[in-house]
Amino acid sequence: MASKRTLLRHSAGALAATMAALALTGTASAAAGPSAPAASGLPRGHDVSSHQKPVDWATARSTGARFVYVKATESTDYRNPYFSQQYEGAHEAGLYRGAYHFARPDRSSGARQAAYFVRNGGAWVADGRTLPPALDIEDNPYSRKDECYGLDGTQMVRWIQSFSDEIELETGRRPVIYTTTEWWRLCTGNSHAFAGSHALWIARHGTSRPGPLPGGWQHWMFWQFDADGRLPGDQNLFNGSTSRLRAFARGW
C-alpha cells in the first residue's frame, strides 16, 4: 500500500481456531507464476486509496471484486479525500468493505492514531458486510534510511499493541495487521505477540505463494499478491470461502 513505490498508495481463541481451519497449503498456491493466485478460486478483492480517486464500483464488482479495503487515514492529520465515495460506493455495489490506517509510529502514539482512525472511517459495525479495521504497518515511505520509524523492536511492538488495544476498546474488534515478512522481522524482531489474536494481511508480490509468514502466524487471512491487475489498486485474495468471508465480517 503506502510502500516505497508511491506515497499515495493507498474473541482471540475463536479467531485462532478459525484461522487454523484455513489451510495455507493447497489454497493460493495452485500453480507457479503470476497467474497462480487467480487460479486458486478464492474470493478476490483489492485495496484502494486516494491514488485511485473515484472508483467505478459496479465495474469492479462485475470484474470479480468481492471485497475491498479503503485507506481512511494516516497519522493524525490525513484523511483520504475520496474515502466516502470509495467506502460507501463499495457497500452499495455489494462488496464486503473495510477501512485501513497507514501507521506513522514516528508521529504519535498507537492509541492516538487508532482513535483518529475510528473517528474518520475506521469504525466497525456488525452489519455482516463491514470488515474489521486494518492497520497498515510497513516500510517507511518517507525515509529509506529509517524503515522502522526511529523505534527499536520492543518499542514497535508496544506501539502496535497500543493501536490494537484502542481499536478493540472502540470497536470490539482487533485490527487486521497488514505487513511484509521482511519489515516485520526487521522492525519488531519477528514478534509473535499478535499471531494468536490478529488476522494477518500479508503483502508478497510476484510469487505463487504468500509465505514464509512473519511472527508466528501459521495462516494468512488476506494476501496482497500484486500491485497491478484487473481491479483498481492492489490485488488481494481472501484465504477461505465466501461464507468464511461473511463470517469474518460478522465477527467470529
Summarize the structure.
With 252 residues, the chain is an alpha/beta fold. 30% of the residues lie in helices and 18% in strands.
Describe this structure in words.
- There is one protein chain.
- By secondary structure, this protein is of the alpha/beta class.
- The protein has a single domain (12-250), classed as TIM Barrel.
- It has 7 helices and 9 strands.
- It has helices at residues 12-21, 57-63, 83-92, 110-122, 153-171, 181-188, 242-250; strands spanning 44-48, 65-74, 78-79, 96-102, 134-136, 176-179, 200-203, 222-226, 234-238.
- The protein has an 8-stranded mixed barrel, surrounded by 5 helices.
- Strand 8 and strand 9 form a beta hairpin.
- Helix 4 (110-122) packs parallel to helix 5 (153-171).
- The radius of gyration is 16 Å and the shape is globular.
- Residues 3-36 have low confidence and may be disordered.
Identify the notable features of this structure and list them briefly.
252 residues; alpha/beta; TIM Barrel; eight-stranded mixed β-barrel; 7 helices; 9 strands; globular
Order of helices and strands: HEHEEHEHEHEHEEEH
Q: Class in CATH?
A: Alpha Beta
The CATH architecture assignment turns out to be Alpha-Beta Barrel
What sort of overall outline do the alpha carbons produce when their principal axes are compared?
globular
The name of the CATH topology is: TIM Barrel
Query: Largest beta sheet: what is the strand line-up?
Result: 1-2-4-5-6-7-8-9
| Helix content estimate | 25-40%
